[in-house]
Every structure is written in structure tokens, then in C-alpha cells.
Amino acid sequence: MILLKIIYLMSKKWMFSFVLVCVMFSANAQFRKIPAEVTDSFKVKYKNASGVSWKDKLTSFQAEFKDADKRMKATFSSGGGWLKTETKHSYKSLPSEVKDGFKKSKFANLKIIELVQVEEKNRETQYHIAVKKNNITKRSLIFSKSGQLISDNASF
């Protein structure tokens, strides 16, 4: 019985040590230095950005920031190439074509949760609108800049 207690206590000690090492390693991996090419490209593209914070996404780097009172996220490749920008919108700030497309859709009576403009390299600008009927029924809608509903997916 005493031997089992000793084994149990030792296993807890080793488990704690293992978890501690994993936490230290993951924290170290998250603080990789942002390459100068990335920060330079960001500064050129977003001259008026404020409150910039960076995230290492392993294959890319993402900046979260404010520009002209809009919350934005921009993603850059490790070499500094711009990949994507997401801009949060209010309903009022959406282009009229997108508002009209949403109003004409069968989802117009649902509550809007989030509105995001997505610009991607080599793709047309899209508007992602998350809506919900209740806490269980949610949908993710994607509109083109001309207001056409491109995609409608249930989300949970």
C-alpha cells in the first residue's frame, strides 16, 4: 500500500513537470519574432494603424489593429506578402448593395451577430454576415460586394 502511494505521488510530480515543460515550450513558440519584412509591409499598407498586436499563426502572421475607428485583422506571409484583411462593420457602414442583398434574402428577419468584410489576395471582396434566430439556430452568410448571396451555412 505504501509503495502504491509513493508511485502515485511520483507520477503526479512527473505529470506536473511534463505539463510545466509543455506550457513553457508553447509560450516560447508563440513569441517568435515577427520578421522585419512582415512589419514593414504592414506599415506600408496600414499607415494609420493604431493599437497593433501580432499573432504568430505558424505559417503566417496576423496583426490585429484599429484603422479609422474600425477593428481589423490583416494576415501576412512569413516573407511579408499581404494575404488577407478582415474588417468589422456595423450594419450602417455596409455598402448599400450588400444591405439590399441582405434585406431581400430569406434571412433578413434574423438577428445580426457579426459583420465582417473580407479582402483576400486574388479574390473578390466578400461580406460575411453571422445571423441567429435563437441561441441554437445560427447561420453564416457570405455576400458579394454586389449584394448577391454566395453562401449560406448553418453554424453552431
**Major sheet summary line:** 8 strands, antiparallel
User: Which strands sit side by side, in order, in the main sheet?
Assistant: 1-2-3-4-5-6-7-8
Q: Please state the average pLDDT score.
A: 85
**Sheet/helix structural class:** alpha+beta
Q: Please tell me what the overall shape is.
A: globular
Which range best describes the helical content: under 10%, 10-25%, 25-40%, 40-55%, 55-70% or over 70%?
25-40%
Count of strand segments: 8
* Low-confidence runs of at least 5 consecutive residues: 14-29
CATH architecture label name of the largest domain: Roll
CATH fold-level name of the largest domain: Nuclear Transport Factor 2, Chain: A
- Number of helical elements: 3
- Taking all Cα atoms into account, the compactness measure Rg is 23 Å
- The overall number of domains is 3
H-E order: HHEEEEHEEEE
Determine the strand fraction and express it as a percent band: 35-45%
Q: Can you tell me the CATH class of the largest domain?
A: Alpha Beta
Report the span from N to C terminus.
49 Å
